[in-house]
Specification:
binds adenosine-5'-triphosphate; 6-stranded mixed β-sheet; single chain; 4-stranded antiparallel β-sheet; alpha/beta; binds magnesium ion; 10 helices
Length: 247
């Protein structure tokens, strides 16, 4: 589904991504893990076109997307949850979700200025309702995003990434700062999506969460892939333990 070949990205003297190659298989959940500053978010930024690599290649479904724009890449079907919160605080939960469903500005305004057909609006409403039920936040639909708790905001952001039409989902720390009960919920939602045929790449600091949810794990350290494999193999890999525990 996604293939990265010898990817490099330098920031001045820092090798944020240093000769990374890996492949993400279709209909799997892959966890990208590694200590702080190991290059995980930079790889996401390179894949989604926010940053340009210094060298290397990124292929999505057989198509070279290395030099494509953010818009082109998003139109090719990559949806992303950012590490930092990006909700529109002064819009309601429902409006935030509506924006994700119909993410071109022109379409967005056509929905709000009531030029969209009643049919289309009903379709959107239904999808939003289903999504809110999935994350258990139906009663918050008309609350302003700014009034939600951090964990609730995270769920709404995750909902936005899921609603955004896509065939490849990238999530940067979906459960960071989220309470244990909600983590379980997010895990179930993501596994449910995979069972429906979705392909997910997620960055995760909580190793237990990463091992429980993923089919494959890729471990980064200082911009390099130091291990790759099934959760059970990674769990017992001395090189990985060393990177995490620093001994
Ligand atoms: N825009 C930038 N300009 C300069 N340096 C950057 C920039 N973005 C990232 N870096 C550096 O590149 C390295 C990798 O950062 P990155 O954010 O990819 O790490 P990460 O694995 O996502 O870390 P964390 O787990 O803390 O989120 C770090 O040393 C970081 O300081
Ligand atoms: Mg990061």
């Amino acid at each position: 589904m996604l293939k990265i070949e010898d990817l490099n990205k330098f920031f001045g003297g820092i090798k944020a991504v240093d000769g990374c190659s890996f492949e993400i298989k279709e209909k799997t959940i892959t966890a990208l893990i590694g200590p702080n500053g190991s290059g995980k978010t930079t790889i996401f930024n390179l894949i989604s076109g926010i940053l340009r690599p210094d060298s290397g290649k990124i292929m999505l479904g057989g198509k070279d997307i290395t030099d494509k724009s953010i818009e082109d890449i998003s139109n090719l079907g990559i949806s992303r949850l950012f590490q930092q919160t990006r909700l529109f605080n002064n819009l309601t939960v429902r409006e935030n979700l509506l924006l994700a469903l119909d993410n071109e500005d022109t379409k967005f305004w056509s929905v709000f200025v009531l030029r969209a057909s009643a049919d289309k609006k009903n379709k959107f409403e239904k999808k939003i309702q289903e999504m809110l039920e999935l994350v258990g936040l139906e009663e918050f639909a008309d609350k302003l995003a700014r009034d939600l708790s951090y964990g609730q905001k995270r769920l709404i952001e995750l909902s936005r990434a899921i609603l955004n039409p896509h065939n490849f989902l990238m999530l940067d720390e979906p459960v960071s700062g989220v309470a244990p009960r909600l983590r379980e919920k997010i895990k179930e939602i993501l596994i449910g999506l995979k069972e429906k045929g979705e392909t997910i790449l997620l960055i995760e600091h909580d190793m237990n969460f990463a091992f429980k949810i993923s089919d494959d794990v890729i471990v980064l350290e200082k911009g390099r892939v130091i291990a790759e494999g099934k959760p059970d193999e990674i769990k017992n890999n001395p090189r990985v333990l060393e990177a995490y525990l620093g001994n």
